From TrEMBL:
Name of protein: Nucleoside-diphosphate-sugar epimerase
MF annotations from Gene Ontology: oxidoreductase activity
Signal peptide (UniProt feature, chain positions): none
Species this protein is from: Aspergillus sclerotialis
CDD domains: Gne_like_SDR_e
Entry keywords, A to Z: Carbohydrate metabolism, NADP
NAD-dependent epimerase/dehydratase domain boundaries: 3-205
Keyword presence, Amino-acid biosynthesis: no
Keyword field contains NADP: yes
Coiled coil ranges: none
Record Pfam families: Epimerase
């Protein structure tokens, strides 16, 4: 299977590519505005081709008739899109439309797995969000994602692509450095202390809850979507809320203490950031994932398990 991954230099693009490159039947093209690295530790790195490209300049050089599937991960994250409206609109919407047009013309019917977000929702919301709740985003990032979700629906309804939109929970724990995502601290408050560094929690409310998914579980659900039947969801309603678990700041701190030791809590600093709080409090905190689970997707068993997995990976480095 020939698979294109846009945003291939990013964290999700890299962990997905690493898993796919352990299967000799996959040929992977990784693209980003910088040349994406080929993930280390894969069984078949020779099956990966990195390409430096800017989707705003066109996608024809990335798309050919041999493509079987596309993972669209490119984009500007939440606080970055809020800070720079023009950049968010061009990268998150215009680049996606450019990609879809190239696919429509060159390989119609190709499977497209688009990465969306829980940021498409805004208040007021019920305690548990179901698939029947109409998204009303309260951020530029969420609004841009809704526009692209509508494009995926329409291009699929017309038969131009075979699209699926996956609304991701916040992915935690991400390795590496903090990002421009408003939710970046939800990885940093575990990652930094386990690496002996300080992390700032931008909301002074330990009861604040977030909807989280581990990288390992996300990759499982991403790969599962490659084989979903085309009619698994209606042709004009392609969005699926990816399973997550609801975790409070206090529960995350408890997991850090239990796995890493009480001394790690000293690296956490709580300092409210009004601009981030406004974004964070607009997001839902709990979902009914009946649809996703019925399609074969899975959720994490606990956040403590996620922290243990991350600590184990650190020790193996």
């Amino acid at each position: 299977m020939h698979i294109l991954i846009t945003g291939g230099a990013g964290f999700i693009g890299q962990i997905l590519a690493k898993e796919l490159l352990n299967d000799p039947s996959h040929k992977i093209t990784l693209t980003d505005i910088i040349e994406p690295p080929i993930p280390k530790g894969t069984k078949y790195p020779q099956n990966a081709k990195p390409i430096k490209a800017d989707l705003l300049q066109g996608a024809d050089n990335l798309v050919d008739k041999s493509l079987d599937a596309v993972y669209a991960f490119h984009g500007i994250m939440s606080s970055g899109a809020e800070e720079n409206f023009d950049l968010g609109m061009s990268v998150n919407i215009d680049a996606t439309r450019t990609l879809l047009e190239a696919l429509r013309k060159t390989c119609p019917g190709v499977r497209v797995i688009y990465s969306s977000s829980q940021a498409v929702y805004g208040q007021p919301l019920p305690e548990v969000v179901t698939d029947d709740i109409t998204p009303t985003p309260q951020s530029s990032y969420g609004a841009e994602k809704i526009v692209c979700e509508t494009l995926i629906n329409e291009y699929t309804r017309r038969g131009f692509i075979n699209g699926f939109t996956l609304r991701f929970p916040t992915i935690s724990i991400r390795p590496g450095k903090p990002t421009a995502a408003a939710s970046s601290f939800l990885s940093g408050m575990i990652r930094e202390p386990l690496n002996g560094k300080e992390s700032v929690i931008p909301i002074e409310d330990r009861s604040f809850r977030s909807w989280l998914c581990s990288p390992k579980t996300l990759v499982h659900n991403l790969i599962l979507t490659l084989s979903l039947p085309a009619d698994a969801v209606p042709p004009h309603i392609r969005q699926i809320n990816v399973p997550g678990i609801c975790v409070s700041i206090q529960e995350m701190m408890d997991a850090l203490e239990k796995v890493g030791g009480k001394d790690k809590l000293a690296f956490l600093k709580e300092k409210g950031d009004p601009s981030l709080i406004a974004i964070l409090k607009s997001w839902p905190t709990c979902f009914d994932n009946t649809q996703a689970i019925s399609l074969g997707m899975k959720r994490d068993s606990s956040f403590e398990e996620t922290v243990r997995d991350y600590k184990q990976e650190l020790e193996q480095q």
